[in-house]
């Protein structure tokens, strides 16, 4: 059974629900839109996911 986790930074401007969910898959990390649980899943290998997280964390934040 795959366990999906919702981002702790969920939500958006104007009350929209802009969320992603992550799951540890057998050989990848799955990323999906929380509003479309039966929709497509982006599969990222572990190194690509680590690079994505590093890029997001080091990006300048907008106000």
UniProtKB/TrEMBL annotation:
Domain DUF397 span(s) in chain numbering? 4-57
Name of the featured protein? DUF397 domain-containing protein
Instruction: Give the source lineage, highest ranks first.
Output: Bacteria, Bacillati, Actinomycetota, Actinomycetes, Streptosporangiales
């Amino acid at each position: 059974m795959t366990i999906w986790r919702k981002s702790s930074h969920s939500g958006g401007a104007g009350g929209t629900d802009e969320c992603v969910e992550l799951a540890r898959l057998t050989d990848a990390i799955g990323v999906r839109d929380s509003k479309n649980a039966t929709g497509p899943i982006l599969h990222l290998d572990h190194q690509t996911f680590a690079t994505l997280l590093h890029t997001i964390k080091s990006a300048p934040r907008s106000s």
